[in-house]
Design goal:
The chain is mainly α. The protein is built from nine helices and four strands; from the N terminus they run ααααββαααααββ. It is a multi-pass membrane protein.
């Protein structure tokens, strides 16, 4: 049996697929630890936890795809004959797993914003509306990905009789909608924090933290470029690229940046200089209101 070819580029891609979810998992573990310790676990943690589980699945599927489809290997090193069926099945699985991840991260962020006290009702309605749209988009996109070809098997056996949607148009449009909801999710915190009564330094700090989401949006734009290139690049050596790994970077970076604000109590615990008497009860567990993890801002 011929040994499967490898290359430095494929090895780098696999390293990215392992390192990114590992860093995200460490961040999530710290987040859940401090949330549990301060008794502020909520639905935002459930959403980010689900996104993390899917991100691990995405990484595993992506590594299998890279091996089965020889991604990161020069075309002249690919052994012939090549049967892409197994790889295409995993491409289909990876596509289905990828789409809900960013939506769940954004849902977590939006729920986190709702947990702030002092937010005006009209802003709260906007956040809820954005969350509803994000959830509907996630479900619609997931269903479209699952049933993009009829029969479904045509996704990995293109010669079968049947039909598929315009995959290029679908991929580009969903990527653009993802970027749009990214921008809304990044913009909302700025509007909310500007209207909150809190220490100026804390307000600036929170705004800087939420600005990290812009980096995720930038990576989403880079992914859009590689996605378009994947459909249009007909060169024989098109697979010698790390564009396939951008999705993992995007998803795990989103998980990390969305979790940073929730780590603030842990950071203050590790760096006592950041803590003041006014910080007591920042995460105020309000049993009498039934709102777990209500975040006080009027300090």
């Amino acid at each position: 049996m011929t040994e499967a070819p490898t290359s430095w580029l494929q090895d780098l891609g696999i390293a990215i697929e392992v390192a990114c979810p590992t860093l995200a998992l460490i961040t999530i573990s710290l987040r859940l630890y401090i949330r549990n310790d301060t008794k502020t676990l909520g639905w935002d943690d459930a959403c980010i936890g689900a996104a993390m589980a899917l991100s691990v699945a995405l990484a595993i599927g992506s590594i299998i795809c890279m091996k089965e489809l020889y991604i990161g290997i020069h075309y002249w090193d690919v052994p012939l004959p090549m049967n892409p069926t197994t790889g295409m099945i995993w491409i289909y699985i990876v596509g289905a797993v990828y789409n809900p991840i960013l939506a769940l991260v954004k849902q977590s962020l939006l729920i986190f914003l709702i947990r702030f006290s002092g937010v005006k009702d009209v802003v709260r309605y906007v956040v809820w509306g954005t969350a509803a749209f994000n959830l509907a988009l996630m479900i619609a996109t997931f269903v479209a990905v699952i049933f993009q070809c009829t029969p479904i098997e045509k996704n990995w056996r293109p010669t079968l009789a049947g039909s598929c949607i315009q995959q290029f148009s679908f991929g580009i449009s969903t990527a653009c909608l993802t970027i749009l909801t990214d921008l809304v999710s990044v913009g909302l915190p700025f509007h909310i924090f500007l209207g909150l009564k809190m220490q100026k330094k804390r307000k600036i700090g929170l705004m800087i933290v939420f600005m990290l989401g812009i980096i995720v949006t930038a990576v989403s734009v880079i992914r859009l470029f590689f996605l378009a290139k994947n459909f249009t690049d007909k060169s024989l050596d098109a697979n010698f690229s790390l564009g396939f790994c951008v999705s993992s970077i995007e998803c795990n970076l989103a998980i990390i940046t969305a979790s940073v604000p929730a780590l603030w109590p842990l950071i203050r615990r590790w760096v006592p200089q950041l803590k003041s008497s006014k910080d007591q009860g920042y995460y105020n567990h309000q049993n009498h209101t039934g709102q777990q993890g209500w975040i006080r801002t009027g300090d």
